[in-house]
Amino acid sequence: MKDSQINSDIVIVDDDQFQLKLLSHQLSTVGYKSVVAFDDPQTALGHMQSAKQKSTVLILDLNMPGMDGFEFLKQLKEIDFSGVILFVSTKDDLLIKASEKLATAYGLETLGNLIKPVQANQLEQFLNALNTKRENNLKGDKQYQYSPARLQQAIDDGELFNVYQPKVLLSTGELKGVEALVRWEHPDDGLIMPNQFIDLAEDHDLIDTVARQVLRNALNDSKIWKEYGMDITMAVNISIYNLNTRDFIVYLENELLETGVNPQNLILEVTESKLIQDYSMVLDMLTRLRIRQVNLSIDDFGTAQSSISQLRDIPFNELKIDRGFVTSACNDKALHGVFDGSMKMAKNLGMKTVAEGVETEADWSFLGDSGCDLAQGYFIGKPMKAKELADWREQWADRYQKIAI
Ligand code: C2E
Ligand code: MG
Ligand code: MG
User: Fold this and answer.
1) Which residue's CA lies nearest to atom 41 of ligand 1?
2) Where in the sequence of the chain do the CATH 3.20.20.450 domains occur?
3) Which residues, chain by chain, have CB under 5 Å from ion ligand 3?
4) Element (H, E) at 137
5) For 159-403, which CATH superfamily applies?
């Protein structure tokens, strides 16, 4: 059991005695022992006012006689509730979206919505998501697994390497390009994913060195593929901190010259959320890059709600819709809506669109008539070593015949 699990106090508020018993039982089977249940909202509020709130998860039924969900949220705001709320509602409860919005407007944190009858695995999924979020926040408190010195050593010793994930045209299945994703092969700990060291690199002035190494390897692999007749685009993720100085642009120009890679085949991906944080700083540098014919892509789009004017000012050519809006969008109207909206906006701004996180054949089919240009995801191909790409392409061509939309 994780520490965060032990530390979560769970408060259930539901007028239905049976629900209360069922939820308490389900929580105890998945390891949560500190559970308090109330069938009366007013008593629950009294309890929460005095309890240690920050670690509290409040499981709240929206439909209660006496005090409805809206009124309860208002009271929670008044007692400055600082825990997390998980709503319980029926499948077609029209209040749920409005309640989530209202909670956000009150500055309350929500975790999602459990549909009655609540299934134990559904409950567990939400609580696991919360644990992961809390763990990530802890990491945000700069408790890194590796020291900056160890990462520096990894860079010096060549322990970082690139893998590549294919991007294909939805209309023909053709391999259009790849995205380079960095990995760290640690001699004792094995394969380490970028989310375990990119923030560390950003915080300790190592991100420039990482980016240079990733870019150099990516352009070299591009050059080799081209020699074998594979003329495809290469996307590299860059951090906005790479754009702090002009040195990076000079380095990039030199590498392009040295490898002979056409700048029009290079795409730099910047994540939307970071972009919004330091918008004015990056605007200038990104424009300079675009003037040099390098392509710019907004990564993880949909997660940060950037304004259309911000996007219009930076000459992006590509928009990558975050996988949160792609994976399973076929089954979810709200996701579908965000997806369509992003697509329209991209088209209006003349950008190519890429759907990230195409995990299943259903995701793939959903994209068929979505107007999206390119697709990327485990269903098409997982990130792989450079030498595996040619074989993958042959296998994909066969597979594509069977799944062509
Ligand atoms: P990203 O740029 O959005 O890359 C896509 C991530 O989604 C990759 O994770 C990829 O393996 C994963 N992915 C691809 N298809 C699917 C799918 O169908 N389902 C699911 N669930 N996931 C899929 P990865 O390699 O762990 O990279 C995570 C993030 O780390 C990247 O997100 C990017 O923001 C960052 N990153 C990776 N390499 C670099 C780098 O060289 N420099 C910088 N600054 N950031 C990097
Ligand atoms: Mg990316
Ligand atoms: Mg992404």
Assistant:
1) 182
2) 159-403
3) 299-300, 356
4) helix 120-140
5) EAL domain (3.20.20.450)
Residue 398 CB partners (closer than 8 Å, separation 6+): none
Give burial (CB, 10 Å; 0-12/13-18/19+) of 334. exposed
What is the overall mean pLDDT for the chain? 88
Per the structure block, which two tokens stand in for 108?
């309350």
Average pLDDT over every residue of 299-326: 85
List, edge to edge, every strand of the sheet that includes 35-38: 35-38, 9-13, 56-61, 84-89, 109-115
Q: How confident is the model at residue 4 (pLDDT cuts 50, 70, 90)?
A: very low
Read off the pLDDT of each residue in 250-254 and give the average, rounded to a whole number.
95
Protein residue whose Cα sits closest to atom 45 of ligand 1: 237
Q: Which two tokens stand for residue 222?
A: 């591009």
Distance 342 CA to ligand 3 centre (A): 14
User: 2-138 belongs to which CATH class?
Assistant: alpha beta
pLDDT in tens, 91-126: 666 777 778 777 877 778 888 888 888 888 888 888
Q: Which residues line ligand 1 (CB under 6 A)?
A: 165, 181-182, 193-195, 198, 214, 237-239, 269, 271, 299-300, 323, 356-359, 377-378, 383
Q: Quick one: tokens of 147?
A: 């020291």
Helix (H) or strand (E) holding 130: helix 120-140
Task: Report the alpha-carbon distance of residue 243 to residue 314 in Å, rounded.
Answer: 14
